[in-house]
Amino acid sequence: MTVFTCGSCGTAVTSDVTQVPFPERAPEHDGEGEAPPRLAPGTFARDPDPFGPPFVPAADNPRVLVSAGPVGAILVHPGDVRELRLHPDRRRLNGCCRLDGCDGPNLVCAACGAEVATEQSDCWVSGHDIRLEPAAVAGSGPMTGA
Ligand SMILES: [Zn+2]
Fold first, then answer.
1. 141 alpha carbon to ligand 1 midpoint, in Å?
2. Residues near 55 by Cβ (< 8 Å), separated by ≥ 6?
3. Could you give the domains of the chain?
């Protein structure tokens, strides 16, 4: 079991969560309203792929932009985060009807303001996910993966 804390001030930013394999497939979503979470409550997974900005042209299709952001972001269920609030910079809060998470971390530590997580919850994304920045949090328990 692992509790993630803010790397700057030590505030717990998740409840006690257990690592699971990263889900290969996003949940089914018809594009209407909020996408369902990718993970079950009480679990977390290390994202094996880069996440977030910068975005660069894909090697096999230069017309498609892909993330060249950090590898190993910590995916958590939206119900398991604690003590986070929206980023004060509105430019981080873009989205069609909620948050698209494409502009860098959009959630900060409520105690100290450090950028610790990115929420993706917009109508067009494939899952309602929150990813903790791998460099901005510390985990209390055992963890494997990228
Ligand atoms: Zn903090």
1. 19
2. 65, 66, 67, 68, 102
3. 1-22+34-146 (2.170.150.10)
